[in-house]
Amino acid sequence: MGLSFPAPFVDVFILPTDASTGTRIVIDGVNGRIEFYDASNNLVGLLRSNPTPLQYWGSGTGARIQIEPGRLGAYDSSGLERIAIITVGLGTPDIRYDGNSYPRGIWGGFDADTSDSARAPGVNTDMVVLANPILAGRRYTVHLHSQVGVGTGGFNALECTVDGTVVGQFWVDDNPSTNNMVDSHVTFEPAADIASPTVRVRNNGSSAGNLQMLAASDNHRTLYMVDEG
Question: Which residues contact 119 (CB under 8 A, 6 or more apart)?
Fold first, then answer.
């Protein structure tokens, strides 16, 4: 013969049994929640299925850690969310302070101490960054540093492309020389999330002639992409 319990025992279970004040745990089967109280009768923890949050620790309306699907938030004593870890585009995490996204730093890079071949207008150099995912609405900066050999005077420029789309331009001195130095950056915000972006340096299709990225053991050429938040 099966066991049976009084309805109140099944619906609401309190530890210690029947405690109404002080440190206790209230398991509320009717409303689908577990409440945690401290010795001063403050609700300091809550676990529930609906609505979110799933749980918080600390004062129910003040300083607390709050967990809900795709979000972990830290709140100050006035109840304002100060720090949050959330899931954003492509399932990647984002850390925010007072609503501002934290920079993630260098997102991919290229470093070489040997020269590339001369590249005709419209042709990619060998400088490429296979970066981590980039997200719409975030800001990224691509920094190029290289000595550049210019064979023909006139308009000469290097383009920054992401998956073949031009996002900016690095200017090159128009004097034919092997002593031109490019130390420049391009900043852009993608219109859509890109899971595996390819960032390249390309000789502008309108350049006057071939451009060559030059390097040596004591004069590296570098390409870095930085996530600025």
Answer: 125, 202, 203, 210, 211, 212, 213
Our CA angle for 200, 204, 206, nearest 5°, is: 165
- Which residues are registered as beta bridge partners of 7? none
Domain-located, residue 141:
yes
pLDDT along the chain (229 residues), means of 10: 49 83 87 86 80 62 77 84 84 82 87 96 96 90 94 87 95 76 94 94 92 95 94
Q: What is the pLDDT of residues 43-61, one digit of tens each?
A: 888 887 766 556 666 655 5
Percentage of the chain modeled with pLDDT above 70: 90
d(CA 125, CA 216): 17
Domain count, the chain: 2
Cα distances from 23 to residues 19, 47, 215, in angstroms, run 8, 16, 69
Question: 199 lies in a domain?
Answer: yes
Q: Nearest 5°: phi and psi at 123? A: -110, 140
Residue 171 in any domain: the answer is: yes
Q: What is the pLDDT of residue 5?
A: 46
Global pTM reads: 0.70
Residue range(s) defining the domain that contains residue 117: 105-227
Tokens of 181: 């130095």
Residue 189 CA to residue 168 CA, distance in Å, equals 11
CA–CA dist 147, 111 (Å, integer): 13
Asked if 114 and 28 sit in the same domain, the reply is: no
